[in-house]
User: Fold this.
Amino acid sequence: MAGPKVFVFAPADEDSLDRLEAAGCELLRGTAGWSSPQGNNEDELVDMAQDAVALAGTTIRSACISRRVMQASDKLRIIAKYSVGHDDVDLDAADKLGMLVTHAPTEANWGAVAEHAMATMLALLKKLDQRDRAVRTGRWREPALMATYLGRRDDGYAGITIGIIGLGRIGGRVAKLLEPWRVRVIACDPYIDAQRFAEHGVEPVDLDTLLRESDFVSMHVTLTPETRHMISHDQFRMMKPTAMLQNNSRGPVVEEAALADALRDGRLAAAAIDVFEYEPLPADSPLRKLGDKALLTPHMSAGCLQGGLHEGCQWATDGILEAMRGRLPQHVVNPSAIEKWRTRFEGRSAFDD
Assistant:
């Protein structure tokens, strides 16, 4: 007799899958993955989720884990994301169905994103790509290669202002990493209390003020209906034409067409983008044609040999095994579903069905 079925819609780590098989689970793998996030369409997901007790995976972009997918199995107990983000899961449907969704906010993941944000910020402000290219093509110390001095100085130079949108784990770590640089840091996050701003040495401001005053804007928000396209044409018009922006959160929080227009028209000096509205980035994307104005990386800010998704996959696997044993897992992102879930599954082992 086969054990509980786990549909891994976007595999990312073999060790975690080995653990599930060792526990007696039957595994079915989807076609999405860390390096190819598109994956199966909704109809295929529905078919593959039949009789599943758990769904697991990293990001999937071809279709979300929708109500139809969840309802494909009346045995389904948990949707366990390997990543911090869970915007590819219909949380409203999960709440109504009493379905638990977990995520994996491991420091290995979000800490790496903060480090990447610092790297791309410095690369843009110090014009590292342009300077490298100049040397390789025989050019030397051209005026256009002059960079930005970040921190305030004792001679009266005030330094630049860096604006952080979203002061959660990643945004907070970026603020801490900026402390030695002697820059002015402002942040916008209506869901964070005043004490956290104070602890991070950050000045709280509203979004419009942040956009008007920042020389560099760093995006660190989750993707929700509220944050989708929160930065678009109107917001770029508020920014200094010398300002720069980076997005390491989710692609749709910045409207790409508006970003490309602002860069092309000189209303924004440069941008570093690790996440895109459509991934992988389409060949005809205007962002590809902007040269040094756009520093593009392949949604890989968490990708480190010493970090990445491995720990998150283990957290997700822990949650799956707990849910299968009829126990409440950790890292639930939709606590409003817990009561209904307990009525259906608490104390019931999926291994006994």
